[in-house]
Every structure is written in structure tokens, then in C-alpha cells.
Amino acid sequence: MLSRIALRSVAARQSTPTALIARTSASSTEVSGVRDEVNFPRPVRGEPGKVRLGFIPEEWFQFFHSKTGVTGPYTFGVGLATYLFSKEIYVMEHEYYTGLSIFIMVYYASTRFGPKLAEFLDKEVDNVENSWNAGRVNTIKSLEDAIASEKEAQWRAQGQELLIEAKKENVLLQLEAAYRERMMNAYQEVKRRLDYQLEKTILERRIAQKNMVDWIVANVTKAITPDQEKQALDRCIADLAALAKK
């Protein structure tokens, strides 16, 4: 575990300038109002690395595998333990057996209850992470709803423009109908006056003709003498008698 912490600390020191630059760029990007998700993605919770035998990092096996093969790490571990025990560098006294017993119990507990405990803790971590992300998710949802309502408002505004155009066309049609109605009224009034003048002229002509006929008849009647009237009467009687014979 100490070796893994040492390796991670070295990697963190090596990546510190890059991390500072990335953090500075990310902060400047967030200040500008636009976040570059491609170059500066949001941090994701890291998963623990793989281990063998419950506590030995996978990196050590990979290190030995490139030099000694597959059995190299196990041979090194067994040889190191044999060397420590044979040279009595590590004395197997009562504390050794106590530590061995504790190791066996810890190993049994970790293999038996570790997955369930890890699943429970992962759920708790997920709940905490979801609670932290709830505000951001709600904000994104509210912004998406605002965008959708804005698009709907734009669509309604376009509909209002079409409605205004339709109302303008309706007003123009009403003006055209009113114009045609007034033109028809003017035509009818002019026609009525012209018909009145025509009837007046015809009536005056008839009265003049009647007066002319009456004047002619009166003058002709005045011009006929009694002798002429008697001659005309006799001629009429003779014509009637001739017609009677036929």
C-alpha cells in the first residue's frame, strides 16, 4: 500500500504543471461562460486498482512479468520470506502467530463480507454523488425547459405574424367590399337620376304632343264652316249608303 501511495504521489508531482494549466484553462473557460467538455471533461470518480492476493498491487506483477515471467513475482515473494525466516531477520515468535491469525481473519472477512460492504459503500457514494449532481441536473433541466419555452414563444410569435397578415388581408377585403358597395350605390343613384330625366323628357314630349294635337284639332274645327260641315256630313252618309249596298 505504501508503494502504491509512493507511485501515485510521484505521478501526481509529474502531472502537477499539466493539472495546473488544465485547471487554469478550465477556470478561464468557465468564466467565459462556455465549458470545453472535449478538452476539459468533468472529473469522474476513480475506481481502485487491481490487486492480487488481496493486497499486492497489479503493477508489481506487471513489473516482474516483463523481466522474470509469470512465476517471477511468486518466486521472489517465497524466496524473500524464506530468506527472512532462515536468517531470523523476522523471528516467528508468539506475535508472528498472532499476526498470522489476524491476517487470516482479515482475509476471511474481506473475502466473505468485503464484496457486500463494497457494494453498500458504492451505493452510498453513488447516493452522495447523485445528491451533489442533483442541483446541476435540475439547473440543466430548467435551462432546457427555458429553451423549449423560448422556442415555443418564437413559434407563437411566428403564428402571430401570420395572424396579423391574415387580419391585414381581411381588412383589405373589407375595404374592397365597402368600395364596391359605394360604387354600386353611386351607380344606382346616377341611374335613378338619369331615369328620372328620361321619364321627365318623355312626359314633357307627350304633353307637348297632346297640346299640339289639341291645338291643331281646335284650329281645324274652328276653320270648318257650317257649309263644309254639312257637305262632309252628306258625303259621309253617301259613303255609308254605298257601303251598305255592297
Automatic annotation (TrEMBL):
GO molecular function: proton-transporting ATP synthase activity, rotational mechanism
A Pfam family hit: Mt_ATP-synt_B
Keyword terms, alphabetized: CF(0), Hydrogen ion transport, Ion transport, Membrane, Mitochondrion, Mitochondrion inner membrane, Transport
Subcellular location: Mitochondrion; Mitochondrion inner membrane
Presence of the UniProt keyword Ion transport in the record: yes
Gene Ontology CC terms: mitochondrial inner membrane; proton-transporting ATP synthase complex
Main location: mitochondrion
Origin superkingdom: Eukaryota
Membership in a protein family: Belongs to the eukaryotic ATPase B chain family.
Quaternary structure and partners: F-type ATPases have 2 components, CF(1) - the catalytic core - and CF(0) - the membrane proton channel. CF(1) and CF(0) have multiple subunits.
Function statement: Subunit b, of the mitochondrial membrane ATP synthase complex (F(1)F(0) ATP synthase or Complex V) that produces ATP from ADP in the presence of a proton gradient across the membrane which is generated by electron transport complexes of the respiratory chain. ATP synthase complex consist of a soluble F(1) head domain - the catalytic core - and a membrane F(1) domain - the membrane proton channel. These two domains are linked by a central stalk rotating inside the F(1) region and a stationary peripheral stalk.
Identification of the protein by name: ATP synthase subunit b
